[in-house]
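Course assignment 3, question 2. Fill in each field.
Student: A.L.
Task: Predict the tertiary structure for the chain below.
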Amino acid sequence: MVNKNKLSDDLNKLRQLEDADQAVNRKLDEFIHLLEKSELDSDNIKRLKTRLDEALETKLNNKNLVKEIQKISALGGDNLDNLDQLEFLLTSHHLDSREAKKIKINTRVLNVFRLLVGILLITLGFAMIIMPAPPYFEMFTIFYFTADDGFTLMDLISLVIVATGIFIMIKSLINTKSNG
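Answer field:
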């Protein structure tokens, strides 16, 4: 009994998708008919073409689909409901493994870039602490160790830069572990 209800629900969803496809085709025919009758200049035609290309490219990229699949996978709850939602998404959208690989590669490249920025910030911060700065660049001293040496505002700024670099590195490594 449950399988019959599930099967009929799935068939209804697929019929709705087919009806939606037919509606899109009708609207496209109407759009073409309007274009043929209109007296648009070349600038307006280029703008329409750009908007249409952007909409089609967004539909082809399926980035939203992958995000929806990840969201459904991350949700807790009834596994059968999650499977039904995933099944509906996969039957209603075209998902290619090449697109999933592209998204994974983009995520890895972003994490590596973040890691490099973190290393660069840490190096910059320590270089600012170690290398001597001119007296007019040292600003004022916050805490004196001796009469001639102490902890300056420049050292504090350098430590903030190092801490930021460490935070970015740790965040990047955590993202790499969770996505890998």
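Instructor remarks: The chain has a mean pLDDT of 77. DSSP finds six helices and two strands in the chain.
Grade: pending
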